[in-house]
Amino acid sequence: MFASIVWDVDPAIFEIGGREIRWYGLMWGLGFILAYKYAEWLFKKEKYPEEWVDKLFIYSLVSVIVGARLGHCLFYQWDYYTSHPIEILKIWEGGLASHGGTFGVIFAAWLYSRKITHQSVWWLFDRIIPCVAILCFCIRFGNLMNSEIFGYPTTMPWGFEFVRSREWNQLYAGLPCHPTQIYEMLYCLVAGVTSFVMYHKFHLQKYVGLITGVSLLIFFGTRFALEFMKNPQVTEEVGMTLNIGQLLSLPLILLGLYLIWNSRVSREKPMKK
Fold it and tell me: At what angle do helices 51-71 and 23-45 cross, to 10 degrees?
């Protein structure tokens, strides 16, 4: 028998009026609050208009949730949700995809940049990557508390037995599995710290897109590699050479490489007063 950690955490914190308050929802909320506080601190430090923060929060909140929901429905369960479109609205039943949230926030940041900052969308992302990292870190912690999105069995001493997971009990009962939620929390931490240091210590935001490009490689290069050890999220992924998460990561990896290359000739423009 391999050494392992028995993960027996109740995904619900408590109940109110017969409805569960779950760690997953709490971590989404906490992630947005912490991301907002970081953006508020940064915008005040850089003397950007005060109203920019609230507008950015609204744009981001709507785009991330809508994008993550649509991403799950369209990328992972297309057949089901095209046959039952009203089910797309039942977000409380679960089903959010990080890639969908990423594409959603890129669109929202582009729209926000056109209407508010009048700068490149990558100018904005170079500044708010720590916000993205904070939110993603919290969401992956929520996945851990839900005992979901874990990996294949492992002989490593840090393997987890997700005893509250129906999927784990059906497929791997008694076998410790990779806690890929923690692995993803770690790369979120690395991306957040790296982007923070690049901005505040080395002032590399003058090369527009460089910080964003490096961060995309950390986020999605690592995500691509980790998918090889993750349990399939939907039955459609069984037998695929590259799973859905990897296929969706590839364009973001290529975008990161392009932004790094293009940053050689893309310089920060002075702010309009």
Answer: 150
